[in-house]
Amino acid sequence: MLESIATRMARLGFVESAVEDILQLRPFTFRRAIHQPAYRRRWKKHGPLGLAVAFFLLQESLSLEDLRRLLDDESIAALHLQGFLEPNRLGIRCKVDLYPCLGKYFFTDSAFEVEPWPEQVYWLGGDSYTLAYCTPRRSYARALDLCSGSGVHALLAGCPALGVDINPRAIEFGRLNAALNGISQVEFAQGDCCSAEGTYDLVTLNPPFVPTPEGVAELYRTGGGNGEGVTERVVRRLATWLNPGGLFSMATEAPDGALQRMRRWLGSGWGLAELRKFEFPIEEYIFSNILSSGTPPDQQEAEYERWLDTYEDHNIQKMVSAQYFAVRLAPGVPDWEHSLEIGHPSGPPSEADWSLWLNEK
Ligand SMILES: C[S@@+](CC[C@H](N)C(=O)[O-])C[C@H]1O[C@@H](n2cnc3c(N)ncnc32)[C@H](O)[C@@H]1O
Fold it and tell me: What is the pTM for the complete model shown?
C-alpha cells in the first residue's frame, strides 16, 4: 500500500527542482518554520503539486477534500495505518515529512518540530542531499551506510546494502522507506556504527557532527565536544570494511583541517578528496544550533556561553561544510589528496566531475 504514495508523488512531479520552484528557495532544505506565511502564498497557486509541498514539507493542515485531490484513498489509508495523520480543527496534518531525492521518496520526522527529542529521525537536510548527490552512482556489489537515519543512502546505493543506526526509530523508518520505494535488497540493523561487519565497495556516512557541550541529547546531531566522536571511529575502521578500490563517501561539517586529520587516522594507502561547500564563523554556527534545539529565550545567552567554552576547549575557530572521499588504493599506487571548492550542489554532478574528484585519469 505504501508504494502507491511513491507512485502518486512521482506521477505528480514531486521532485527536488519542482519543490524549489514552488517555494522559490534553492536549496529548499533551507526552509524555516518562521517563514511559513510567505511559503503559503507560494504553494497555493500550484494545484496538487502545491498541496504536496504544503502537506509533506510544510506541516500544513489540509481539508479532506484537498487531501483527496492529492492522494487516492489507498494512499490515505496507508498513511492512516502508519499513524502519520493527525486530524485537527483546520483539517488533517501529516506528522512526518516526505522528501523527494533522486527519484525516490523518504519519510522522516518533521524538520519543523518545535522541541527536538533524542530519537527524532533526521529529515533530509542539506548534508543528506550533498551526500546523495556527490556519491558517485556507479555499480557496487555491496554497500554499507553508517548512521543511516531515514535510510536514504542505503536505499540509493542501487545494490544490496546494509544500513546501521543507533536509533531504533531510524531503523523503523529505514524499513518503511524500503517498502515505500519497493526495494527489497537493503537491510537495516540497529547498533553502534562500529558494530557493522562484512566487506563492501561503498561506505557512506553522514555522521552526527555538531560539536556540543555535555547534555545535548539529539542523536542525529551531537558529535561530542570536538564534533568528531563518530567520524574518527568510523574513519579509523575503514580498512576493515572497504575492499581495495572501494570508496568512502562522507558529508559532514567539521572544524577546519578535516582532510589532514583523515590522513592521520588512515595512514598511507588512501587517496583523499575534500570538496568544500562553505564555512561558518563559530558564533553564527553555535547560535543557529541553539535556536534549532528549542532552547527557551531566557536560557539562550547562558547556553551560548556554555557552547562557546566547549569550542574554545577544543580550539575550534571555524566550521567547514564539505563532502569527503577516501579511496582505498591498490598496493603500490601512491597516496594522493586534494581540496576543491564546489559550493552547495544543486543536483548530481557529471561523470567527469566524479573522475576529477576521485583523481581518475
Ligand atoms: C546527521 S544524521 C544522518 C542521517 C542520514 N544518514 C542522512 O544523511 O539524512 C546522523 C545519524 O547518526 C545516528 N547516530 C548517532 N550516533 C550513532 C552511532 N554511534 N552509531 C550509529 N548511528 C549513530 C543518528 O541516530 C542519526 O540517524
Answer: 0.97
